Amino acid sequence: MSTASWQDWLDRGLGGHCALCESSLSGVALCTHCRHSLPALPQPCPVCALPMQAFCAHPAGWRLDSLYAPFIYSGSVSVLIGRLKFHRQRWLGRVIGRVLGSALSGHFDWCMPVPLHRRRLAQRGFNQALEIASGIAPSIDGMRLVTGGLQRLRNTPPQAQLSVKARKTNLIGCFAVNANVERLRILLVDDVVTTGSTLTALATLLQQRGAAHVGGVAFARAIGRHAIKV
Ligand SMILES: [Zn+2]
Ligand SMILES: [Zn+2]
């Protein structure tokens, strides 16, 4: 994790109370206890974001060229994600996006949030990946936030509720690309990466359509026993 930028976020403060336990605070976003409770991913692989020793083989069928996800999806990180998604704290998405953007390296032409199906979007009222992408895009020179370029055609059940085999079937033909992505460097944005199968499906499509590079960014990565339901 790029500790400097996260520290900056934690120290800058978000408004009078801890974003996790809601104890009264001034000038910081998380109290000391909650700050130390955020589980950082140890030595993440720059391609698949799984913890690595000297070498990483990446999961079978992995298609992304790069993935940055600084935290493990568990504990207090899953609480923050829950606040963003299910308690409609959209500001949290933009703050997370700003910090992710300042920690990202590399050049990207387009920033594309993973789309929700229109029915799920209507239920939730917003796309959490778009909130995060809105925070990321201004932090990277020359990158454009493109919101209509990807479409989710089917309202599939959440991936984490399915077996590995069902996940693959579940995503065949699930997405469409509605933009010319030839020779572009694309950054896909999501809140959490569980198995990576959604990003893999999108990267496969974008690469078929001529994208030069498809990277991904998310706040958190599910690993091992933490690869749980979203
Ligand atoms: Zn706290
Ligand atoms: Zn890897």
In brief:
With 230 residues, this protein is of the alpha/beta class.
Protein architecture, described:
Helices cover 34% and strands 15% of the residues. The chain is built from eight helices and eight strands; from the N terminus they run ααββααβααββαββαβ. It has helices spanning 3-12, 32-37, 75-86, 90-103, 118-124, 128-136, 164-171, 197-208; strands at residues 66-68, 71-72, 110-113, 144-145, 150-152, 175-177, 185-193, 213-221. Strands 1, 2, 3, 4, 7 and 8 form a six-stranded parallel beta sheet that branches. A two-stranded antiparallel sheet has the order 5-6. The radius of gyration is 17 Å and the shape is globular. The structure holds zinc ion (2 copies). The site of one zinc ion has 7 residues, from loops. Residues 18, 20-21, 23, 30-31, 33-34 line the site of one zinc ion.
